[in-house]
Design a protein that fits this description.
This protein has 203 residues and is α/β, with parallel strands linked by helices. It has one domain: Metallo-beta-lactamase, Chain A. It has six helices and 14 strands. Helix 1 links the parallel strand 3 and strand 4. The longest helix is centred in the last third of the chain and has 11 residues. It starts with a strand and ends with a helix.
Length: 203
C-alpha cells in the first residue's frame, strides 16, 4: 500500500494520498491549501485517484477538492449532511472501494455535524474529530460537545487499538498515533460522564 502524509497550508493541515500500490487506484483525503505537492505526487507515482474523501466541511479540509478533481476526475465523498454537493453522500456504516482498498465510514458528529472517520487497511483518518493528544473544537458553528462525547467514547474508542490514527492537523507530539495510545494517553479520552465532558469542553 502507498500512504503519503503531506503537511500543507497555513494551519498545519495533513492531506493524505493513499493507493493500493504505486500506479494503482487510490484516494486523496482532505485536500487542503497548497495542494501542489500532492498533485505532483499523484503524477509521479501514477496514482489513479478515484475518490476525494472529506472528513468534514471546514474550508481548510476541502479547499483543494476542485484542483484534485480537475487533475484526476475523482469523485468527492462526504457525509450526506455536508453543506455542499458531493458525488457520493455517505453515512455511518457505509463502505466503498478504490482498487483493492476498502474504506468504512464512521459518523462522528461533534466538531461539525458532518464529521466522519474513514477506516482502511489498518488506519483511520480522523480529520478534526481526534488529533494526537487532543480532539477537535466544539465551540464553532455546528459544534456540539455532547455529540463529541458520544462520538469519541462510543464510536472512536470502539475501534481496534492497533489502528493507526491519521489526524487532520499536525497538532501533536508525533504526526500519527494509534487508537490504543490515544486511549491511554489523550487527556480528552479519559473516563468522564457526558456532563463532565461537556463542562470540560466549555471551559
Amino acid at each position: 500500500m502507498l500512504l503519503d502524509q503531506f503537511r500543507i497550508g497555513p494551519y498545519l493541515n495533513f492531506t493524505y494520498l493513499v493507493a493500493d500500490e504505486a500506479g494503482g487506484q487510490g484516494v486523496v483525503i482532505d485536500p487542503s491549501y497548497g495542494i501542489d505537492p500532492v498533485l505532483r505526487a499523484i503524477d509521479d507515482r501514477g496514482v489513479k485517484v478515484r475518490y476525494i474523501l472529506n472528513t468534514h466541511s471546514h474550508t481548510d479540509h476541502i479547499v483543494g477538492n476542485d484542483d484534485v478533481r480537475a487533475r484526476t476526475g475523482a469523485k468527492i465523498v462526504a457525509h450526506k449532511v455536508a453543506p455542499y454537493r458531493s458525488d457520493l453522500g455517505v453515512e455511518d456504516g457505509d463502505a466503498f472501494a478504490a482498487g483493492r482498498l476498502s474504506f468504512e465510514v464512521v459518523h462522528t458528529p461533534g466538531h461539525t455535524p458532518d464529521s466522519v472517520l474513514y477506516v482502511f487497511a489498518g488506519n483511520v483518518a480522523t480529520g478534526d474529530t481526534l488529533f494526537v493528544g487532543e480532539c477537535g473544537r466544539t465551540d464553532l458553528p455546528g459544534g456540539d460537545p455532547a455529540a463529541m462525547y458520544d462520538s469519541l467514547h462510543h464510536r472512536l474508542l470502539a475501534l481496534d487499538d492497533a489502528l493507526v490514527v491519521l489526524p487532520g492537523h499536525d497538532y501533536g507530539s508525533t504526526p500519527t498515533s494509534t487508537i490504543g495510545r490515544e486511549r491511554a494517553e489523550n487527556y480528552v479520552l479519559q473516563p468522564r460522564t457526558k456532563e463532565q465532558f461537556v463542562r470540560f469542553m466549555r471551559e
